[in-house]
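pipeline stage [seq->struct] | target=Adenylate kinase | organism=Xylocopilactobacillus apicola | residues=218
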Amino acid sequence: MGLPGAGKGTQAEKIVNEFDLVHISTGDMFRAAISQETELGKMAKSYLDQGKLVPDEVTNGLVKERLGQSDVKSKGFLLDGYPRTLAQGEALDQTVKDLKTQIDQVVNIEVDPEDLVQRLSGRFICRKCGATYHRIYNPPKVEGICDVCGSREFYQRDDDKPEVVRNRLAVNIQDNTPLIAYYQEQGKLAKIDGNKSIDEVFAEIEKILKKFDSFKEL
């Protein structure tokens, strides 16, 4: 878990490689179900084609379908991007109970929302050639001039504008707060400082996961 820009995807990739887990992201799961034309995949596609959010019951059903597959049973799994709400968390608990498995640990990567605004709203694009830059992490070599074509004209996508990013973060905080409390009450929540380097964050996660018997020898 973590807000947009906190580094969930980067850490998920490192975790599944280190611990040989099946990586289950909602995006990949939707794409697979749609391409295989499963009943739930068709339902998900009908909502996505209309630009609507996929309802919880469809998402929950897809997760249950995926967690019941043989690779998950033999290797264990990491969920990335699910659950996002308390209702999804409660549905997941019922799913793992039905499948006679469990959620061992919930990792929440914490970064101050204003720091995330800087991370997420710093991107801008050359209007002439489309080269992408970031004010902090990847600025042009000469300020105000595109490295690729020499243009001085840049623009920022609406999705990257600070006010849009702040609104996106606010929605995520509203959804995540009850879910974080839910897992904290279960004693399954590990809070990780996401302001550290990628390797430092992973070292903290690795230390937590190696407390579990199945990972101690890895």
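stage status: PASS
auto-comment: The chain has one domain: 8-215. Strands lie at 22-25, 77-80, 106-110, 123-126, 132-134, 154-155, 189-193.
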